[in-house]
Design a protein that fits this description.
About 35% of the residues lie in helices and about 30% in strands. By secondary structure, the chain is α+β, with helices and mostly antiparallel strands. It folds into two domains: about 20-120 and about 220-345, Ribosomal Protein S5, domain 2, CATH 3.30.230; about 125-215, PDZ domain (Pdz3 Domain). The chain has a six-stranded mixed β-sheet, sandwiched between helices. A five-stranded antiparallel β-sheet has the order 9-8-7-6-12. A three-stranded antiparallel β-sheet has the order 3-2-13, with helices on one face. It is globular.
Length: about 350
């Protein structure tokens, strides 16, 4: 009898433990992630930077919640978001990761272009095709095309840009059968299907949302190893590392510099989410400087959301809250960041050896 009671108690404890600590619920925890040194991530002509100091990208960690971790929302810089808030119209975490991978790839592309433009170095942009962001339910290619596929040809025709691609599709009649060549994970496929009438415009279409897919070739060659990190927010810091390496300038001057922000090919820096958590992550890794996007807030947006704050304002508040000595630097463009770094004094020059000896002698 005692043995049966022991097993029943053990089973009950396991059930309680599972439902409290292991059972996932449709919420996610966003909290400070890491600040990653870019030296081992970026190579130019097969070489890695070994200059004093660091450029660091920052991340936000996302964990699926359990009933227990749901309580993390009461900890500083831990927020709970619903699946709808996190994924939007995306159906699952795999599609979310695919989208984040695209954003990272696009961010790398823009970062390299911005850095080479600023350095006055040549590069070559090559149009690869159309990147599939989503497929509508009524599309005759639903179940065939997937998010992340790249359409390279239609009816054996290649295109110079996405506008040419769209113009060709629009020129065909609804119901016309087209042959589409596309790439997925490095493998080419060909499928046929009929065009549909698009609800928004009444024109013929495949039934997909899309963006450009292109690559950039440079001399010297730049390779960025982003690993499993996704999203577009490392763009600014990638650009700074690449620029510093291709121009052979030690911009960081021995400082540990973190930051965040998207970057466009023309060098415009855009806002990102979770910047307060990234400030915390950078401070924990010893950063002394943090670049924060200082985006212009549209007057209509400010009128509708009076409490809306720029990334820079949020970053300053977080820095004050955690009482860090890290300097928060507002930047609107890539050139803003370069100008700030160019006036930095080297870390070593802060200390006068003779003064140090005198201090010790005293």
């Amino acid at each position: 009898m005692k043995k049966i009671s022991f097993w029943i108690k053990g089973l009950l404890l396991f059930v309680v433990f599972y439902f409290l600590f292991l059972r996932p619920i449709p919420y996610y925890i966003e909290r400070p992630g890491s600040a990653e040194d870019l030296d081992p991530m970026i190579e130019v002509e097969g070489e890695y930077s070994s200059e004093p100091g660091k450029f660091m990208m920052t991340t936000v960690e996302i964990l699926q919640a359990t009933p227990f971790t749901y309580l993390f929302q009461f900890l500083p810089y831990n927020d709970v978001v619903s699946e709808t808030e996190l994924f939007g119209d995306i159906e699952d975490y795999e599609e979310y990761n695919t989208l984040q991978s695209y954003y990272m790839e696009s961010s790398i592309h823009s970062a390299i272009v911005a850095a080479f433009d600023a350095a006055g170095l040549p590069y070559n942009l090559e149009y690869k095709g159309v990147y599939v962001m989503s497929v509508t339910e009524n599309s005759n290619f639903a179940g065939i095309l997937q998010m992340g596929d790249t359409i390279t040809e239609v009816d054996d025709l290649k295109f110079e840009n996405t506008e040419e691609f769209m113009d060709y599709i629009k020129s065909l009649e609804v119901g016309k059968t087209v042959s589409i060549k596309y790439e997925r994970d490095g493998t080419e496929y060909i499928s046929e299907g009929d065009l549909i009438e698009l609800e928004e415009t009444g024109e013929s279409g495949i039934g997909i949302s899309l963006v450009d897919q292109s690559s950039v070739e440079t001399d010297p060659e730049v390779v960025i190893h982003s690993g499993e990190i996704g999203g577009p927010s490392a763009g600014l810091m990638y650009s700074l590392q690449v620029y510093s390496m291709v121009t052979n300038t030690n911009l960081r001057a021995g400082h540990i510099i973190a930051g965040t922000g998207t970057i466009s090919e023309d060098g415009t820096i855009g806002p990102i989410g979770g910047i307060d958590k990234k400030v915390v992550a950078a401070d924990e890794e010893g950063a002394t400087i943090f670049f924060a996007p200082d985006e212009e807030i549209d007057s209509d947006l400010k009128e509708e959301y009076p409490d809306y704050k720029s990334n820079y304002e949020i970053a300053v508040e977080a820095a004050e809250d955690i009482d860090t000595d890290m300097e928060i630097v507002p930047v609107k463009t890539f050139n803003d960041a370069i100008k700030y770094l160019e006036q930095l004094s080297p870390v070593s020059s802060r200390f006068d050896p003779e003064q140090k000896v005198d201090a010790l002698a005293a």
